[in-house]
Amino acid sequence: MEIKASFPSLRDLNISRNSFTGSISPIGDMKLSYLDLSQNSLTGSIPPSIGDIKLYHLDLSHNNLSGGIPDQLTMGCSSLRVLVLSNNNLQGQIFSEKFSLFQLQELRLDGNHFSGSIPKGLSNCSYLSSIDFSNNNLSGKIPSWMGNLSYLSEIIMPNNGLEGPIPVDFCQLQYLEILDLSNNTISGSLPTCFNPAEINHVHLSKNRLEGSLTRQFCNSSSLITLDLSDNQLSGNIPDCINMLGELSYLILKNNNLKGEIPIQLCKLQKLSLIDLSQNHLSGYIPSCLNITTFDEASKVDPSTAQAVAQPPGGPISTDEPVYFTTKSVSYSYKGKLLTYMSGIDFSCNKLTGEIPYEIGHLSKIHVLNLSHNFLVGQIPTTFSNLEQIESLDLSYNNLSGKIPPQLVQLHYLSIFSVAYNNLSGKTPARVKQFATFNENCYQGNPLLCGEPMRSCSVASPPPLIQGGPTQGREDDGFIDMGVFYVSLAVSYIMVLITIAAVLYINPYWRRAWFYYTEMCFISCYYFMVDHLPKQFH
Predict the structure, then answer these.
(1) Greatest CA separation found in the chain?
(2) How far apart are CA 24 and CA 2, in angstroms?
(3) At 407, phi and psi to the nearest 5?
């Protein structure tokens, strides 16, 4: 592809979203300030001659460019404010030591093969507001000087090999809106001073963070997404979580959290997704949880929901994904699709008590997973109101009673399991969605009958007797008293017969027996003579 200097007065050139192929030829003497060649099929390397143009905006993203970033670009384009090279095949160090892009405000290099550490030259970019290095091969520690870039609003660096702690200097980033360091090897604890007032999205999942959550984020009233899953965090969920009035996505799964689910979660009126699975939480499930979706909260047509639901500081939709297990598979939700997703996952904890019937009033949730706990009681009949539910898992608990037949009204249900409980009675009718559920969905409940289990005409195993009187039996349990008395008499007779046989066979024992018997009678006689009153003589 050749860009010629045929238009000496041309300032802005945007030929993005076409089907141009080939390599970018050397660019001649032009006065371009804006160049956008994104979303084509360009190949080859970035021509060094681009550095001869005084650009302030350069976008070469979504092509098949290879090689590295030429030094002429990093030295010559000193007025460059926006550099977007996302989703190419670029590699090597991001920038060499020859660097003069001190006016940079937005730097997006995601989706390449860059390696090495975060370039120190960026420490002089005092106007830098957005960094996206995601999906590369970067390594080393996160430099502390990033905390001195006071205008930073986006730090997006997931899916790399970054390590070490989150610098305490990040506490100075008061304008930070997005922090995404997920899927690295970040270690240590979260700085206790980290409370950016304007932050909207925090993604720190799949790292090695440890320590407890104290008051981090408690002053971040604009926080929408908090994803700290797949770490080694411990302690309790902080009570100050009710101060996060805009929180919609709370993902804390697969940590070492303990204690009870805080009742303060009930004050979050915009909560859409909550995943506390694979922890050590105990106690009861709060009955006052309010799980909603953005389209429901906006009370408008879903096509306009994105424009209406605006948090402080920016649009609610973000390209940073949130992972949530739906239908037994972990899916990635982002963008507008995320605004329609709603669910609860409290599985693999130590929760006790009954399932609150109020959960059945959360008619917009798509996922409910309460499996692998110690829940008791019956399945609430109000679950028939979960009109949008797609996945319902109550397996591996101590639930009892019947499965509500009204559940057949759940038209979107595709995953259902009540396995390994103490349920009894007949399974729901094999109609609609329930016609697709096999025996595995019900197994581990010996008192259940009906398709796809055994027929209800076959006698069920007897229930365990918990104590108390039963028909045809005495209060003293399972012992038949008639049989007991007969056995006692037979045993007594057998003992007498055995003694008589021994005395008959052995004359020495027989003489000893009679001697001792006679002595006993004589002793008893003289005892009575000596001690009874004379009138009885």
Answers:
(1) 154
(2) 6
(3) -65, -15
Q: Which long-range contacts (CB under 8 A, 24 or more apart) does 258-266 make?
A: 258/234, 258/282, 259/235, 259/283, 260/236, 260/284, 261/237, 261/285, 261/286, 261/346, 261/351, 262/236, 262/237, 262/238, 262/286, 263/288, 264/239, 264/240, 265/241, 265/289, 266/290
If we measure between CA atoms, which residue out of 175, 151, 174, 155 comes closest to residue 166?
155
Q: Residue 179 is which amino acid?
A: L
Report the candidate in 75, 109, 73 with the shortest Cα–Cα distance to residue 94. Answer: 109
175-178: Cβ within 8 A, 24+ apart: 175/129, 175/150, 175/151, 176/152, 177/153, 177/201, 177/313, 177/314, 178/153, 178/154, 178/318, 178/320
pTM for the whole structure: 0.79
Question: Among 466, 440, 465, 366, which Cα is nearest to 410's?
Answer: 366
For residue 489, which phi and psi values (nearest 5 degrees)? -65, -45
- Residue 138 DSSP one-character state: E
Q: From its phi and psi, is residue 230 left (phi > 0), alpha (psi between -120 and 50) or beta?
A: left
Q: How far apart are CA 298 and CA 306, in angstroms?
A: 9
Closest C-alpha among 257, 238, 228 to residue 348? 257
| Residue 511: its H or E element | helix 507-531
DSSP state of 354: B
Q: How far apart are CA 119 and CA 413, in angstroms?
A: 50
H or E stretch at 531:
helix 507-531
Q: How far apart are CA 363 and CA 386, in angstroms?
A: 4
58: left (phi over 0), alpha (psi -120 to 50) or beta: beta
DSSP string for 74-133: HHH-TT--EEE--SSEEEEESS-S----TT--EEE--SSEEEESPPGGGGG-TT--EEE-
3-state secondary structure of 264: helix
Nearest to 129 by CA among 194, 83, 92: 83
End-to-end CA separation in angstroms for the chain: 144
> Tens-digit pLDDT profile for the chain (537 aa)?
666 555 667 888 999 999 999 998 887 667 889 999 999 999 999 999 888 888 999 999 999 999 999 999 988 888 999 999 999 999 999 988 888 899 999 999 999 999 999 999 999 999 999 999 999 999 999 999 999 999 999 999 999 999 999 999 999 999 999 999 999 999 999 998 888 889 999 999 999 999 998 888 888 889 999 999 999 999 999 988 999 999 999 999 999 999 999 999 999 999 999 999 999 999 999 999 998 875 554 443 443 333 333 333 333 334 677 777 766 676 666 656 677 789 999 999 999 999 999 999 998 999 999 999 999 999 999 999 999 999 999 999 999 999 999 999 999 999 999 999 999 999 999 888 899 999 999 999 999 998 888 888 765 555 443 333 333 333 334 445 666 777 778 888 888 888 778 777 777 777 777 777 777 877 777 777 666 665 555
Residue showing tokens 């499996």:
371
